[in-house]
C-alpha cells in the first residue's frame, strides 16, 4: 500500500463507517462516511477550509483579527449572498471603529478591548453605532469559532448599552398640504426640480432607492388598473450605478392613484424637456426619475434638496425623505388593515409595519374627546372575591378606610354627588365587578400624609400626550394646548411612595 504524504491524515474503518482523521496544530479533525466517495467529498471540503485560513500547518496561531475579518467577508459576506451596501457598511465599521483590533492575534483578543470601543461610542452619543459595531465583531468571531480558529467568542461577553428607538415622525394633514402646495408652486417656477418624486413617494410609500430604480418598463397594467412593478433598486458603487433585484418580500405590484399617475407624467415630461435642452450629450438610461443629463440621482442629493426646500419655506424641524414613506403608511393605516399596509410597504413581518405606523395626534384627540363612559346603575349582587376580601382586610389592618372613603377625605366629594356624575373623579376598571369603579388612592393618600412622596419621571413608552375632556390632574405644569385641545403630558412627575 502506498504511504500517504504528510498532511493527508489517516484512514481506517470503524464498523460500517469509514473514518478520516487529521491533526492540525494540536487540533484533531475527524470525518466519517459510509461510502468512499462521500468521505472524499468531506475531506476535500476540510482541505479547502484549511487552505483558505492560511494553510494546513502554520498560520492558524498567527491569524490576526483583520485577516479573520477578510476571510469572513470572502466566505460569507459576499455577493450575491448580501447586497453591496451591506459589504460597504461592514467594511466601514472595521475601518472606523475596529481599527485598534486589526493587528491583534485572535488568541490575544480580550473582551475588555472591545468593551472599551463600545463604551467610547456610547459616551459620544453613538449608541446605535456602538451596538452595531459589537454585533459585527460578534458575527466575525462566530465565523472564526465555527472554523476552530478561536476557542471563545469574546464579543459574547461585551455588554451592549440600552437603546430606545426614537419615535417615528409623520406629517399631519396641515403640514402635508403646506409642503405640497409650496413644492408645486416652486416646481412651476423652476426652483424645485424634485416635486415629481416627492409627489410619487407620498402617494405610493416606496423607498427612495426603489423609486430611483423605476424604468419605463415598470409601468404595467394589472386587472385593468395601471400599476408600478417594484422589483429593482438603484445601486451606486464606486461611481457606477446598476439596477439590482429587490428582496423577494419587497417585490410587489402597486396600483397607481391619480396623484401617483400625475407624478409619473410630470417626470416623463421633465425628462423630454431635458433631452431637448441637453441634445446629443443626453444619456438615456430608461429611468423615469433622473438628472438633467439623464444620469441617475444619488439618494443623498434628493435628501439634501428636500431639506433645503423645507428650510426655504420656513419649516423649523425639516422632515427627511424617508419620513414621507412613514407619512403615507400612517395615513393609509387609518382606512386599511395592518395586513394591507404591510403589503404596500413590502414588509416581511407585520411587526415591522407596527414600528412604522404611528397614530397621529389628531386621531388620538378625536378618540379621547369622543370617549363617553356610561354609569352602570345595576346593583351589584355578586359575592366578593378573595382579592377584594384580602384588600379590605389589609385596609383595616393598616388603619385605612375603603377606596370611596379615601376619595371622600382626599377630594372632599362624595361618589354620589353631581361632581362625580359629571366626570370630575378618576375611574378604573374592576375585573371582579366588571365595571368602572373609583380609583384606589390609598397608597397615594398615606404617602401624602407621611410626607414621603417623590416625583418620578415616567420613562420609555409610558410617555405620551392625552387630551382632556373631563379629567382631574395633580400638576398644573402638565397642562398645555396642542392642536386646539387641552392635553396632559403623561411624562410629568407622578407621586410615588419611597
Structural notes for this entry:
The chain has helices spanning 36-52, 65-75, 84-96, 111-123, 127-146, 173-188, 195-204, 208-212, 258-278, 299-312, 322-333, 338-345, 350-356, 361-369, 386-397, 403-411, 418-421, 442-450, and strands at residues 10-14, 17-24, 27-33, 219-222, 225-230, 232-237, 240-245, 252-255, 427-430, 435-438, 453-456, 465-467, 479-482, 485-489, 494-497. The termini are far apart. The protein is elongated and about 85 Å long. With 498 residues, it is an alpha+beta fold. The strands form six sheets. It has a three-stranded antiparallel sheet with strand order 1-2-3, covered by helices on one side.
Strand order of the largest sheet: 1-2-3
Please state the overall shape, judged from the principal axes of the Cα atoms. elongated
The profile of the biggest β sheet is: 3 strands, antiparallel
Mean pLDDT: 74
Task: Kindly state the percentage of residues in helix.
Answer: 40-55%
**Tally of separate helices:** 18
Oligomeric form: single chain
Q: Helices and strands: which structural class?
A: alpha+beta
**N- and C-termini, Cα separation:** 84 Å
Q: Radius of gyration from the CA trace?
A: 33 Å
Could you give the count of β-strands?
15
Low-confidence stretches: 384-388, 393-415, 419-426, 440-461, 465-479, 490-498
Strand content: 5-15%
Amino acid at each position: 500500500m502506498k504511504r500517504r504524504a504528510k498532511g493527508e491524515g489517516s484512514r481506517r474503518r470503524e464498523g460500517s463507517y469509514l473514518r478520516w482523521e487529521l491533526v492540525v496544530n494540536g487540533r484533531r479533525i475527524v470525518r466519517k462516511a459510509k461510502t468512499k466517495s462521500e468521505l472524499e467529498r468531506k475531506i476535500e471540503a476540510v482541505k479547502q477550509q484549511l487552505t483558505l485560513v492560511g494553510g494546513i500547518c502554520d498560520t492558524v496561531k498567527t491569524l490576526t483579527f483583520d485577516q479573520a475579518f477578510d476571510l469572513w467577508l470572502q466566505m460569507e459576506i459576499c455577493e450575491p449572498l448580501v447586497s453591496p451596501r451591506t459589504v460597504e457598511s461592514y467594511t466601514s465599521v472595521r475601518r472606523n471603529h475596529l481599527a485598534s483590533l486589526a493587528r491583534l492575534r485572535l488568541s490575544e483578543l480580550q473582551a475588555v478591548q472591545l468593551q472599551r470601543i463600545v463604551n467610547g461610542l456610547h459616551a459620544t452619543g453613538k449608541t446605535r453605532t456602538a451596538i452595531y459595531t459589537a454585533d459585527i465583531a460578534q458575527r466575525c468571531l462566530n465565523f472564526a469559532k465555527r472554523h476552530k480558529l478561536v476557542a471563545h467568542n469574546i464579543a459574547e461577553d461585551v455588554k451592549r448599552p440600552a437603546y430606545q428607538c426614537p419615535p417615528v415622525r409623520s406629517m399631519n394633514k396641515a403640514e402635508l398640504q403646506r409642503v405640497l402646495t409650496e413644492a408645486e408652486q416652486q416646481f412651476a417656477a423652476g426652483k424645485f426640480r424634485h416635486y415629481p418624486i416627492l409627489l410619487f413617494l407620498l402617494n405610493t410609500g416606496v423607498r427612495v432607492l426603489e423609486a430611483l430604480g423605476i424604468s419605463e418598463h415598470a409601468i404595467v397594467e394589472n386587472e385593468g388598473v395601471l400599476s408600478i412593478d417594484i422589483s429593482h433598486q438603484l445601486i451606486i458603487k464606486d461611481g457606477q450605478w446598476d439596477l439590482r433585484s429587490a428582496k423577494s418580500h419587497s417585490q410587489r405590484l402597486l396600483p397607481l392613484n391619480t396623484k401617483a399617475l400625475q407624478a409619473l407624467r410630470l417626470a416623463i415630461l421633465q425628462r423630454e424637456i431635458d433631452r431637448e435642452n441637453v441634445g446629443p450629450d443626453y444619456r438615456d438610461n430608461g429611468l423615469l426619475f433622473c438628472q438633467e443629463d439623464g444620469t441617475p440621482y444619488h439618494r443623498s442629493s434628493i435628501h439634501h434638496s428636500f431639506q433645503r426646500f423645507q428650510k426655504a419655506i420656513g419649516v423649523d424641524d425639516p422632515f427627511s425623505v424617508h419620513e414621507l414613506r412613514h407619512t403615507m403608511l400612517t395615513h393609509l393605516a387609518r382606512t386599511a388593515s395592518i395586513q394591507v399596509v404591510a403589503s404596500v410597504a413590502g414588509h416581511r413581518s407585520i411587526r415591522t409595519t407596527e414600528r412604522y405606523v404611528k397614530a397621529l395626534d389628531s386621531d388620538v384627540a378625536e378618540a379621547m374627546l369622543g370617549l363617553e363612559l356610561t354609569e352602570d346603575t345595576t346593583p351589584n349582587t355578586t359575592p366578593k372575591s378573595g382579592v377584594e376580601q384580602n384588600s379590605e382586610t389589609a385596609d383595616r389592618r393598616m388603619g385605612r378606610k375603603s377606596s370611596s372613603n379615601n376619595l371622600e377625605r382626599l377630594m372632599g366629594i362624595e361618589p354620589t354627588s353631581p361632581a362625580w356624575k359629571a366626570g370630575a373623579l378618576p375611574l378604573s376598571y374592576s375585573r371582579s365587578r366588571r365595571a368602572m369603579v373609583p380609583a384606589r388612592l390609598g397608597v397615594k393618600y398615606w404617602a401624602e400624609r407621611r410626607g414621603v412622596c417623590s416625583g418620578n419621571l415616567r420613562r420609555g413608552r409610558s410617555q405620551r400626550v392625552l387630551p382632556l375632556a373631563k379629567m382631574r390632574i395633580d400638576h398644573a405644569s402638565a397642562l398645555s394646548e396642542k392642536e386646539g385641545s387641552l392635553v396632559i403630558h403623561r411624562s410629568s412627575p407622578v407621586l410615588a411612595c419611597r
